[in-house]
Backbone:
């Protein structure tokens, strides 16, 4: 029996001059549904018009994480029945991500626990991004036959060196220190101080409140691996990257190659193309436009429903990718991810004028 849904999947509140927005699906790791996107957007509109609200604070219910992503089970069901509803969900979700990045009031995201996929989209584009020693931040989409979205390619393409390419292709999870290094977060605090921090955010400016509770996160791992990561992931193709990883000699490089080879070959090649292109875009909106095209393309292919089946539904961790090998993915297959979808583009970059 499926867990009962909470009556209100998004809770709204206040503490002092801060508005509180809490994702409230703890049994589903606060995964985002289409109605939740609308509720969040409506709340941001309302608070923008209230002078008493000086900041917005976003948290997740329960103690496991802010948000594990979008409701990927629903996306799979849609893919299996013709893919009619997911484009509308992504359209509203990506527009919300862009709005968060340009929200004129301080938008404070408490990225405690699991923050993946769509959870990154509602947090890592905010003006004040806070991680804790429990944070687990990742863009694991290639493992389910999808590409990094919600502005993930924009963030990943701007990480130091080739760290973003490594994170995108492998889905490696970042702790607090690595999230700070790669530009997914700004500050670290101890998770035990979060309740006090929320109170302080209602009394002080975000800068003052965060400064008072700032903590030094435990050392990350990515900085120590920059040499082999930068050397291997600079290759022009996924095949080239894998070959360099296998030849490098560092044990972690070989592990990364094995991880990549377990991901969707089609998603890997599309992801690399999107990442390389994202380096040259001038705005988050342009990256979101490209991700929308890619997500719609993935919806029509077999790897997305198969990847979700293997990782989320049956949990056998044995996806049967089609094609099964990198060599089976040609330039025309990748080009599908860059083309305008049948329902039209998202058009966020054009809307900027």
Residues:
């Amino acid at each position: 029996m499926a867990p009962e849904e909470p009556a209100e999947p998004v809770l709204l509140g206040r503490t002092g001059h801060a508005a509180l927005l809490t994702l409230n699906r703890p049994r589903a790791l606060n995964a985002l549904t289409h109605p939740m996107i609308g509720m969040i957007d409506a709340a941001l509109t309302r608070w923008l018009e209230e002078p008493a609200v000086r900041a917005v604070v976003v948290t997740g219910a329960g103690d496991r994480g802010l948000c594990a992503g979008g409701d990927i089970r629903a996306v799979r069901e849609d893919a299996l029945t013709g893919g009619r509803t997911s484009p509308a969900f992504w359209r509203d979700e990506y527009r919300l991500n862009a709005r968060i990045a340009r929200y004129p009031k301080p938008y404070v995201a408490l990225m405690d626990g699991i923050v993946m996929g769509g959870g990154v989209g509602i947090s890592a584009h905010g003006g004040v991004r806070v991680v804790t020693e429990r944070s687990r931040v990742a863009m694991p989409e290639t493992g389910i036959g999808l590409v990094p979205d919600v502005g993930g390619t924009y963030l990943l393409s701007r990480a130091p060196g080739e760290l973003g390419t490594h994170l995108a292709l492998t889905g490696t999870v970042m702790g607090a220190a690595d999230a700070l290094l790669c530009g997914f977060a700004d500050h670290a605090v101890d998770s035990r101080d979060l309740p006090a921090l929320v109170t302080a955010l209602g009394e002080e400016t975000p800068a003052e409140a965060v400064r008072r509770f700032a903590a030094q996160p435990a050392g990350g791992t990515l900085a120590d691996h920059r040499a082999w990561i930068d050397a291997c992931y600079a290759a022009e193709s996924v095949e080239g990257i894998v070959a360099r990883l296998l030849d490098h000699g560092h044990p972690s490089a070989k592990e990364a190659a094995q991880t990549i080879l377990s991901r969707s070959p089609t998603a890997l090649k599309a992801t690399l193309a999107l990442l390389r292109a994202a380096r040259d875009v001038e705005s988050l909106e342009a990256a979101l436009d490209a991700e929308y095209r890619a997500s719609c393309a993935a919806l029509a292919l077999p790897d997305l429903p198969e990847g979700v089946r293997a990782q989320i539904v049956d949990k056998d961790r044995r996806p049967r990718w089609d094609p099964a090998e990198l060599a089976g993915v040609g330039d025309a297959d990748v080009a599908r991810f860059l083309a305008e979808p049948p329902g039209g583009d998202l058009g966020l970059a054009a809307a900027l004028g």
Notes: The longest strand covers residues 10-15. The mean pLDDT is 96. The longest helix spans residues 86-101.
